[in-house]
Amino acid sequence: MSLNHDIIELNGEPAQLEDLRLLAQTNYGHFTVMSVLDGRVRGLDLHLDRLQEGTRELFASELDLGQVRTYLRNALAGKSGAISVRITVFSLAFDRARPGAAAVPDVLIGVSRAVPSPTAPLRLKSFRYQRELAHIKHVGTFPLFHYRRLAQSCGFDDALFVDADTGVSEAAIWNIGFHDGDGVVWPDAPQLAGTGVRLLQSGLHRFGISQTTRHVRVDDLGGMSGVFVCNANTVARPVACIDNIGFPLCSDLIATLQRAYASNPWQTP
Q: How far is the C-alpha of 171 from the C-alpha of 153, rounded, in Å?
């Protein structure tokens, strides 16, 4: 059965308005987003590991991953096709006056019909910015959309974050990668280790394709033979330019990245 309407469940039950009040007012938590096809997910273990690690750091608590799997199975039961799932971990017991106290985690699952990812090449504008706790996919997303707004007001599509030396870290909702003619280059900078990029890295390793991680400055990108972004919903989307630097739109690179990603096995909750 295909999904006819969005579903939001808290700890396995339909979420009520009062349940969501604390999350909306406090905005403290973390999440993961996954693409589901007929009840299967690539990188489910990576998503669950991310949720566990974030819960330990933000709430000093353990997340029952077996219970999370049960919540996810129940939310997906009887639904087919392409679905987008967001799992948010927050705590109804979180005390804003004592944020360092351990808090029991609560699990909010949102299920909606997947929207096809755009494929048009992105034009990125660089901004000096680094996310707080860049290694955590936390709910503090205001700056991401603010910088995207600024980029679009300048005629670009999205924002790219760099440090004072124009060293690249990540884009607003993407990891970014480069091809230097010999292999794939990943930026060495504080960033989220996205599930999409980790699956790409695993696939590229499986295919024997060279990968390096190094400091990448915007000013040094002119010789790159291809640039792309990726996240859990988009395997690889080409980048047309960063600021005033244009890049070849290498369809062969994108196809290779898509095959590498697809080489990862499907997993079920």
A: 17
Query: What per-residue confidence (pLDDT) applies to 3?
Result: 66
Whole-structure pTM value: 0.95
Q: What is the pLDDT of residues 33-52, one digit of tens each?
A: 999 999 999 999 999 999 99
Q: List C-alpha distances in Å: 55 to 29, 132, 139, 258.
A: 8, 16, 13, 31
Q: Phi first, then psi: give them for residue 179, nearest 5 degrees.
A: -120, 125
Q: Is the pLDDT of residue 210 over 90?
A: yes
- One-letter amino acid identity for 117? S
Q: Which residues contact 255 (CB under 8 A, 6 or more apart)?
A: none
Q: Residue 218: its pLDDT value, please?
A: 94
Query: What are the strands, taking DSSP E only, across the chain?
Result: 7-10, 13-14, 30-37, 40-42, 82-90, 106-113, 122-128, 158-162, 168-171, 175-179, 184-187, 211-214, 226-230, 237-242, 245-246, 266-267
Bridging pattern class, strands 82-90 and 106-113: antiparallel
Take residue 35 and report the two structure tokens written for it: 């693409």
End-to-end CA distance of the chain: give it in Å, rounded: 18
- The residues, any chain, with a CB within 8 Å of residue 87's CB and separated by 6 or more, are 31, 32, 33, 34, 47, 51, 68, 72, 107, 108, 109, 110
Beta partners for 36? 41, 83
Two tokens, residue 167: 């060293």
The one-letter amino acid at 235: V
212-254 pLDDT per residue, tens: 999 999 988 988 999 999 998 999 999 999 999 999 988 999 9
